[in-house]
């Protein structure tokens, strides 16, 4: 029984199965029809299981019988059954049949659950399932990073379900006080960053003990005569009551036998309690089991806390977990990891066949595409898991090499039909390109190539399943195996490309035809190269890309490490000058290897940039022609001018002289439409093409030749002109990265449209703009020279910490390679002490002598890769490590860090040691014990070897996409941004269905979908629905991205807002406090996002009348906003206003007036007197002044008349929840749109009017009060 497609949660299904009939534009009509097809109306069947009442189950015709099995295994009353069939009128249903294909199955049919006889396989599955049920609430699998379990802590802060918890109980008329005091360490200004709260301990997590031991008996396997009585295997069980029993699993079920530990007596005991399910048997012999065992479905916990994630997520911290006896785990570890595979038929999967067959599935309509994408995704996630396990087994020395005679670094391995190779330069393959450094970079480049070709998805062209695993300092590449490749020499099999970097090259017409289809999307130019006989050979890829036809007749391409063109900024070439923009930044620079490529995102951005240029130039020339029709004679000279003034200078002047891009496009479109029959327009296009470096003269088309500047590749003479053009194009692209992309990244950080919080999100921000991480030093230098440097402090700090931890990672990699397994935890803790501890003379603890064998073994040649046996690592000192980090920063990132110790670095760049610990652990896969570390002690090191719990692999793989779902999601986003909320909501619901269909219930993209849906529910006033969707988004983000990932922090903040709106104040506060704690841990207090978080906390505290606390947070938000948005920003004005309101509630009117005046001044200067914000502020000032005067009068009265003064009652107002919520919505960028039909019509008209204005190029800045601030008010994250 395959483990269904990720716990089919039926409640989920029911919620999402609305009719997918969204209104859509013409272009989406076809999609609409298809969507309705999928959502064939469901129907209900009755299910009757032995010993239970029949129940109804909603099913859909597309489902397989298999999926009903899964539902039964998840249901409370049937969860202990695994070995059964479903029967309709006495006929057994085929597990893999779709329900619609079953004759006679209709609304109201009765399906019977019939117990089937066991086989060894079924008995094993049953025992494993029972063990999973017993362990389902136990987090140890999540800590150990197995079976796609991962951690989630949301339920601790929401007290389980988000129903009514956290609402303030009414006592009579009084609202009871809720406890709002935050823990000390998250108050503004607190310097301590404790680790322990990262994983709050949940009392419910200690599951009730049901059994002491459940394990395989030593009497297995049954002897022949017992086999013939139906014995399948024996189990040994110790109940909580200390009763030791021996159980036989037989074809009929489970029963007690009379064996003991030392005597074998397989006869049934009396009574034998024969039961079809182990749970029924145990319930009869152990009262404690009966009382404590219940199905996880009964637990209050959200299903999302248990469902497996598609790829394994590892936690870098864990508590000390008891290691309990667990037969299934023990057996798994051996059967599936060591050489036992041969004995278990059907265990090894033919990965290559599975990966390629799923690609070949039909994809003509939506249901077909969904099936195909679902199959591709499933196989990929299975393959990634298998490849990771294999790679770890290889490094841990549990796999025999296929060339055991060679030295360790040259060994290759095959395990479970996957081929593994180590990232070292074997046989000097990469000697010219940078040796081991190149061999280390090649696998990731290759993976990027596989990703790119996979995304283009050309029928008939196949790539290998590829996973790159970094583990214990080694880089392992795992690949699926081309059928037949192992039997022949590579020379014979390669029929396209080159196996020696271009000395000998061959080509093949079928490959050219297939690769031609990828040429346009990947921007790869067809080109000729010379082979060793000086013949010209045509290629449509880089020379290293090899084509091999497998024994299965499929056309495979491999070695895609140069799919994208080289990066000339890091590839000095003799006699070639880079453009000035690059030279000014100190390029070209020497890099470790010669495989530095530009990223695909950069190529896309560069081509897009050139296209705009092309349009503008064509338009400019056409306009010149129009103005010159009178003087026809000049026209020829003029139209050729732009092409002559240098390769590409016209950019700058053009920008000013063009009326609007819309017109440029129009003109250019007419050009294209005229198919070049008019000589004048043909000339215009020709000139524009030449100027932007297009490879065609009649239309815009930019492609790159990836072989330019490859050592060893020679081009025929007749293409010299072409090669020259290509070289220029590469130089322009390198310059474009430095002169456009880096500044645009910095600009985005300045206006806060990019908000990295940690290393991972910073890397993502760089990559989205096509900037490789090797440019990090350059980016930081650029920030350093920016006038607004103070407003980029957060970015600079994250950049420095990323740069330092990456340098440390490079050093750690080689450090670990020399460590033998028994010293691993000592070595890792020693490295962390040198890296982070203030203790100046960290000393390594070598393993005690009794572990070192007396006879020093002679050096064996065939040692396993991960078995260094030297103790050189122990001599590392903190000062030496920091020297190495500084020199690594200089040589790799060309960035100067002048610091000799961790304390100087922390001081100089204002870093946090906890953050550095998190970054280095996540990057290298270290898992440490969760406790408070004293980094700053000068007397003892912070870490001992007991603190290092594990070392995990860091895995890179391809993420297959759900294309249709993504299109729906995007069109939904677009609709929302245009103000069509209802249609947007429907499209996004539809996208959610399709995502679920392809990815199963857990995935990053589903998380984004749920977040947007929750936001829309909220805006449209459906708070409970918003809560439910956002709760799923938080759980999913914790499970799929990690409990302290910046995205998770954001999700917590959104959930808190919806909780507050739902009246669950204490829950909202707990969630905000959690978010603040995580943010402090990840990036510290000084970050623009912290201002938003603190404004949220301050507002909620104001709402529950905790004024002093509220002020601490709001004033901190004011400080941070002032720093990052500048003192004149509207955000700062709003901050002043929020602070003023709290002072008003405290009746401190002078302070309130002071803050509101600041706010008023900003509004007046920025928006003018007439603006409503300015007016509101001025009204509020008047009101405060009146209040202050009234208070003064009262005080005077009291002074004058003593106790018998007649006091006017003062109005002290506790803020109303509505007013607090209104402010919360404003700061979180949400506006409510009154959804009467008429308003909606006006809104749509207004949006269209705005769009027309923009297209006319008259885009005047609309004043703030124009009713359409939709773009920034509903930020679609």
TrEMBL record:
Q: Where is this region: Disordered?
A: 1-31, 628-653, 1253-1277
UniProt keyword Cytoplasm present: yes
Q: Name one GO cellular component term.
A: cytoplasm
Q: Locate the Clu domain: which residues? A: 329-571
Source organism superkingdom: Eukaryota
List residues traversing the bilayer.
none
Query: What function does this protein fulfil?
Result: mRNA-binding protein involved in proper cytoplasmic distribution of mitochondria. Specifically binds mRNAs of nuclear-encoded mitochondrial proteins in the cytoplasm and regulates transport or translation of these transcripts close to mitochondria, playing a role in mitochondrial biogenesis.
Q: What is this protein called?
A: Clustered mitochondria protein homolog
Q: What is the native source organism of this protein?
A: Lates calcarifer
